[in-house]
Amino acid sequence: MPDKPKIAFYWCASCGGCEESIVDLAEDILEVAQAVDIVFWPVAMDFKREHVEAMPDGSILATMVNGSIRTSEQEEMAYLLRRKSQVLIAYGSCAHTGGVPSLANQFTREQILRYVYEEAPTVVNEEKTRPQPRHQYDGTALTLPEFRGLVRSLDQVVEVDYYLPGCPPTPQLLKQAVSMLLSGNLPPKGTVLAPDTALCEQCPRKESKPIDLRITEFKRPHWTQIDPNTCFLAQGIVCMGPATRSGCESQCIRGNMPCTGCFGPTSRVKDQGAKILSALASPIDAREPEEIEKILSGIPDPVGTFYRYSLAKSLLRAKVTR
Amino acid sequence: MEDRPNTDRLSTGAEWEPLIVAFFCNWCTYTAADLAGVSRMGYDPNVRVIRVMCSGRVDPQFVLDAFAHGADGVLIGGCHPGDCHYVEGNYKTLRRYHLLKRMLRDLGIEEQRLRLEWIAASEGEKVSKTINEMVEQVRALGPLRLSRRFKEWDAELASLEAEAQSEEVAVHA
User: Fold this and answer.
1) Min Cα–Cα distance to chain B from A1, Å
2) What's the ipTM?
3) Cβ atoms of residues A251 and A172 within 8 Å
């Protein structure tokens, strides 16, 4: 019997939700496990890095890496898995566009380390000890990964073949991706493995979106009684739907919460944040600067709202003067 | 833009000159810039004018892209309120401009680096005055040069790539 195709999973700077989404395949995971050999999956199986290093280059059919890249160790693993894999897939928002961790690109490494190890209210650290990449203890050299100056998406570090978007991707999209890999019928390199239309196209509230949308006020979702059948924008609630790729099965919308943009932009868009900025500001129902400013004050944190999952892959990538 | 002479001069360390990308609407500001030219009004040569049909055509992505490719400032010129050839275009520009300015501030780009001016077809002088003023303001702010900054940010990756490879060799040795 010929060897089954080999698949690997790895995580970098992530929350674990992407790993969870693989387990969310439920019984279907047995089918996947029957069709492929999972050769590396640190969260669930006992294979080590040295096992991967011992494999011939290109011997893994596909590796799905989730999480963004912040440390030198994550970079090393990205290089290693790239070399060992025929197909490298960025799995989930963080690997795809930087994800929530890349909002840290608004701060310098020094600001982050100082806050986390000295200033955070729950921290007691009178000696101001910080983790050091190299340390001598009892005659032994100890090392830790370097903490980089920026959070990056996977493709800002190594070449990526495909992207599975979402925070996390749906089991449906993962199943489709696995069967695509097994069929050998691969789409062009760089394809995002989800529909290439905006979420509004698939939104169950599509019919209630006014043709001539006019926004008189932006309301925060947690301060508002949200009508479960009306377009969020028509209710003055920031919804990332117009600037976000579909394929998520409108899960947030069905839960009566607006889209926050985790599927990233469609293929025609370079910068998701700029696109939603345009979509939200243009229909503001005011012509005088003061009135416009007053309405815009309902969006207190444009960067955190518009680039919640994509700051690393935005055109500016970070707060440029930090 | 990175390969253009202006940026080349920057990379050789010669004196820096502000680079302003200007989006001018076809009906008013571009016509005014034409008028300024025909009337032989001088203005600083630091500006690169891009004609668009309406200031409303200026996608905020264009502004970010200009900055990301090395612009030190971006100027948008459109018809006065009420005079838009497409009725509403310049109001949309105005609304986006207010939000974009705030977002740029949060992303560390100074307010004076983005400017919106209403300049009618007959106001050639205002074109020259606006450009000269903005060049001076941006000159005072100093270079933004994001394309160069991006390279500096990614230098940390190059160092690891080399290190990872040498470690790899050591493992196999």
Assistant:
1) 31
2) 0.94
3) no
In the predicted model, is pLDDT for residue A184 greater than 50? yes
- Give residue A308's Cα distance to chain centre: 9
Residue type at B15 in one-letter notation: E
pLDDT at B13 over 60: no
Give A102-126 pLDDT, tens digit per residue.
999 999 999 999 999 999 999 999 9
**Which pTM was predicted?**
0.92
DSSP string, chain B: -TTSHHHHHHHTTPPP---EEEEEETTTHHHHHHHHHHTT----TTEEEEEES-GGG--HHHHHHHHHTT-SEEEEEEPPTT--TTSSHHHHHHHHHHHHHHHHHHTT--GGGEEEEE--TT-HHHHHHHHHHHHHHHHHH----HHHHHHHHHHHHHHHHHHHHHHHHHHH-
The 10s digit of each residue's pLDDT in A118-157 is 999 999 999 999 999 999 999 999 999 999 999 999 999 9
Taking the domains of chain A in order of start, what are their residue ranges? Answer: 6-100+151-183, 107-148, 199-306
**A193-252 pLDDT per residue, tens:** 999 999 999 999 999 999 999 999 999 999 999 999 999 999 999 999 999 999 999 999
For residue B32, CA distances in Å to A129, B37, B45, B164 come to 62, 9, 16, 57
- Contacts with B107 from chain A: Cβ below 8 Å: 106, 303, 316, 318-320
Instruction: Tell whether A266 is within 8 A of chain B (Cβ).
Output: no
Residue A161 forms contact with B (CB below 8 Å): no
Domain coordinates in residue numbering, chain B: 5-144
Are A274 and B107 an interchain contact pair (Cβ–Cβ within 8 Å)?
no
Q: Does domain A6-100+151-183 have CATH number 1.20.1250.20?
A: no
Q: Is B94 on the interface with A (CB under 8 A)?
A: yes
In CATH, what number does B5-144 get?
A: 3.40.50
Question: 3-state DSSP call for residue A49?
Answer: helix
Regarding beta strands B20-25 and B73-78, do their DSSP bridges make them parallel or antiparallel, or are they unpaired? parallel
Residues on chain B touching A319 (C-beta within 8 angstroms): 106-108
pLDDT for B75-127, tens place per residue?
Answer: 999 999 999 999 999 999 999 999 999 999 999 999 999 999 999 999 999 99
